[in-house]
Design a protein that fits this description.
The chain has about 725 residues and is α/β, with parallel strands linked by helices. It has five domains: about 10-105, 3-Layer(aba) Sandwich (GIY-YIG endonuclease), CATH 3.40.1440.60; about 120-190; about 205-380, 3-Layer(aba) Sandwich (Rossmann fold), CATH 3.40.50; about 390-435 and about 490-625, 3-Layer(aba) Sandwich (Rossmann fold), CATH 3.40.50.300; about 635-730, 2-Layer Sandwich (Alpha-Beta Plaits), CATH 3.30.70. It is about 30% helix and about 20% strand. The strands form seven sheets. The protein has a seven-stranded parallel beta sheet, with helices on both faces. Strands 5-2-1-4-3-6 form a six-stranded mixed beta sheet. Helix 17 runs parallel beside helix 18. Residues about 1-5 have low confidence and may be disordered. It binds adenosine-5'-diphosphate and zinc ion (ZN) (2 copies). Adenosine-5'-diphosphate binds near residues 206 and 385.
């Protein structure tokens, strides 16, 4: 048939390119929104997704879709609505948002497939005919295979192969196929495990929280559970989830990156068996696709994942839990800069279901929403079970100087721990050996030539490393300028480890940082070593501070607490408070009481006082007053234009142009609540040979801000920019560096 007589459909396609629009293509068949198509784009072929946008009538010539990849949409209408909302809110290209939301497999041209071929075998329940049984007596191996599945057992090939009575049979799989053909065996899915209820009882505080959660089972509702570390929040989530699963519903649980460890997963699996499915970067692509598939068809009961799991399609989603909601890892820090907690709340509201946020140190945003009545607040003030909160004491570094990070009080406290066979965590938020390599004679310092930062000395590799661009250099033996010996200032995890090895040669010391723990597997092994009591002293960065439930640790020492007290970032005190309380919370979680020693030059600082008293409420009050006065979030909304340029001043010049356009919009419209600051260089000016500058926009009204940004982004996208400059927009930025 000549092609002219075919009906042609014009479809809109979201394409993974940095442009904030959909693109129109021509297709021979009508394609439902949410379907993946292969399309020509410039001189490439890309996988895009059809979206329900009316075609742009002004285009005279359309390109043809190369191939439709999905026979049915791989994205449901409600998910498409959620992705579109996310793209609009973050002013990010819809094509890139959908690309992020798809499991990695589907970003390529693979067809949708059911990853869940039945892998298990069981005997048929009906009594076999004598004739068929006769054939078995002529085939003794088949007969043995058949009887290996006695008593209604349901076994996988692997499990069957391990049975001793058939260990001599080579090809189990084809034997099973023969039995299936004879009608003796069926291939099936593993029956779903029973969920196991909690064996203990919730304490009265926990029960109260659970019943307030249960009181609002239907409809959108945000619960904030503020419970000190170890107060049994996870146990409450497990109860709430249990109820949903029993009604055939599904639950999405979002956790920070680091906490998705074997310990947490095991806790879920112990309770809910194979209904639990994990989704995070440590899970391979096939597994991720499987979870995506089973979430979408309703068979995965619990989806436990890190931030990108917020985009998971879930057929019968009944509830969302966001654990450690204050954690910064929920915010993606590059490209599509979304906040998974905020999107989770939006998703709950679109799907009209309840959501639970939990934290020992809730974010200012969430606590303010609780105070203003938007969220329902529940508080847990005691540790669950037998444990109590640890006691926090300060070591005043003005009176007792520390040598390479360790004061004598801290050293003797560690010694006592070792004598009593108790574990210690030392927290220092800096990896490497020493942050500064300097010549004592001419004051030469090792800088990164690509960034405006010092190079950190790493003794294990004997190299100087840039923690910003990743570049590493051989350490010069002597000063390159005057040939004196170099001196290394300050301490990181490696130096603390070395000092401890000298002080306590018999102790087993374990370093816990990104240089030592590079894979998910290593993380699991290291955590196992701590939990089994193999490590006496653990020296760790922020990685060690969160989520872990170590029962043997009774002393936490904090090497440098002051970092953050005098930062220009308005969030620094909040982060410091959260960090210190979180890492303190690793102490005394078992039977023995815990202690925390904090080394500081500022024990009288009011914030430090609140840390000592573990007084979240006072912290919240005083932080709230400061932020209200400014006003900064949560009392206003931030958007940050970021520009990176090869030439130092180009970024500022570009931002001035942006500001000028923004100001003109403000003066022509009624946007009094929006305030555009002056463009400035970022606090770390140059990273990886790009100079960085930023322009802050602050607004007390979110709607106004977004109206302005919508036009603004469109304008910027359409002005020509050179290859030597790149810009991005960060909505609700969490860091200003
Ligand atoms: P959180 O999530 O607030 O840190 P968890 O739920 O992990 O707290 O509980 C901390 C510890 O207390 C865990 O070891 C948990 O098994 C235990 N636990 C929780 N609830 C109870 C309870 N009601 N009775 C006894 N132990 C409990
Ligand atoms: Zn020198
Ligand atoms: Zn660098």
């Amino acid at each position: 048939m000549p092609s002219t007589s075919k009906t042609r459909f014009i479809i809109s396609v979201a394409v993974p390119v940095p442009l904030r629009r959909a693109f129109d293509y021509r297709s021979e068949t009508d394609i439902k929104p949410g379907s993946r198509v292969l399309i020509p784009f410039r001189n490439r072929q890309l996988v895009g997704v059809t979206v329900p946008v009316p075609p742009d009538k002004s285009i005279s010539k359309y390109k043809d879709v190369i191939r439709v990849l999905d026979s049915r949409p791989s994205i449901s209408p409600d998910m498409l609505e959620f992705y579109t909302w996310s793209a609009n809110y973050y002013h990010h290209p819809i094509g890139e948002v959908i690309h992020t939301a798809l499991p990695p497999n589907l970003r390529k041209t693979v067809k949708l497939y059911d990853p869940d071929t039945p892998e298990y075998y069981m005997q048929n329940t009906s009594i076999p005919e004598q004739e068929v049984l006769n054939t078995l007596s002529r085939a003794p191996k088949q007969k043995r295979l058949y009887s290996s599945l006695c008593n209604g057992q349901c076994l996988s090939i692997d499990e069957i192969q391990k049975l001793p009575q058939i260990s001599d049979i080579r090809n189990v799989r084809s034997g099973m196929q023969n039995l299936i053909r004879k009608g003796l065996v069926t291939q099936t899915h593993r029956p779903v495990d029973e969920t196991r209820p909690f064996e203990g009882t919730l304490n009265p505080e926990q029960s109260k929280v659970l019943s307030s959660i249960k009181a609002t089972e239907q409809g959108f509702h945000t619960h904030l559970v503020h419970g000190i570390t170890g107060s049994g929040k996870t146990e409450i989530y497990l109860h709430a989830i249990h109820d949903c699963l029993n009604q055939g519903q599904q639950v999405l649980v979002l956790v920070p990156e680091i906490s998705l460890t074997k310990q947490l997963v095991e806790r879920f699996v112990n309770r809910f068996g194979d209904r639990v499915h994990c989704y995070h970067s440590g899970v391979n692509k096939t597994q991720r696709y499987r979870t995506w598939w089973k979430a979408g068809n309703g068979t995965a009961g619990v989806i436990l994942g890190t931030r990108s799991a917020v985009f998971m399609p879930i057929l019968n989603l009944a509830r969302i839990v966001v654990d450690e909601e204050h954690d910064l890892s929920f915010k993606q820090m590059d490209r599509f800069r979304y906040h998974a907690r905020d999107l989770a709340i939006k998703r709950a509201s679109l799907q009209d279901i309840p959501i639970i946020l939990g934290s020992a140190t809730p974010s200012m945003e969430s606590m303010q929403n609780a105070h203003s009545g938007k969220y329902h607040l529940s508080t847990l003030r005691k540790r669950a079970g037998e444990a109590n909160l640890p006691k926090i004491q300060f070591i005043d570094l003005r009176q007792q100087p520390a040598r390479y990070g360790l004061s004598s009080s801290l050293i003797s406290a560690i010694r006592k721990q070792l004598e009593n066979s108790q574990q210690t965590i030392l927290y220092i938020n800096r990896r490497g050996y020493a942050p500064i390599a300097e010549c004592p004679n001419c004051k030469w310092r090792a800088y990164c030539d690509r960034c405006d930062t010092y190079l950190t000395y790493h003794k294990t590799s004997d190299r100087l490393c840039c923690h910003y661009c990743g570049k590493t250099l051989e350490t010069p033996e002597i000063c390159p300028q005057c040939r004196s010996n170099l001196f290394f200032h300050g301490a990181g995890t490696q130096r603390i480890e070395e000092s401890l090895e000298k002080l306590f040669p018999d102790a087993s010391i374990l370093r816990f940082d990104r240089d030592r723990i590079r894979s998910f597997r290593q993380l699991q092994d290291t955590l196992d070593a701590i939990n089994s009591g193999q490590a006496d002293i653990i020296v760790g960065t922020r990685m060690i501070s969160k989520g872990h439930d170590f029962h043997g640790v009774t002393l936490v020492g904090i090497i440098n607490a002051d970092h953050g007290l005098f930062s220009i970032d308005f969030r620094a005190p909040e982060q410091l408070f959260q960090d210190l309380l979180q890492v303190s919370g690793r102490s005394g979680r078992g039977q023995d009481p815990g202690r925390v020693l904090i080394q500081t030059y500022h024990p009288d600082n009011p914030y430090m006082e609140m840390v000592r008293n573990q007084d979240y409420d006072s912290f919240f009050e005083s932080c709230r007053e400061e932020r209200k006065l400014a006003p900064v979030p949560p009392f206003s909304n931030f958007a940050l234009w970021r520009v990176e340029s090869r030439e130092r001043e180009d970024g500022l010049r570009f931002l001035r142009k942006i500001k000028k356009y923004g100001d003109s919009m403000l003066s022509s419209g009624n946007f009094k609540s929006v305030q555009i600051m002056d463009p400035v260089h970022s606090p770390i000016l140059r990273i990886d040979e790009w100079h960085r500058s930023q322009l802050l926009v602050n607004s007390t009204t979110r709607d106004h801000l977004h109206q302005v940004l919508k036009h603004w982004v469109y304008w910027i996208e359409n002005i020509p920019t050179s290859q030597k400059l790149r810009w991005s927009l960060d909505i609700d930025p969490m860091e200003m560096y």
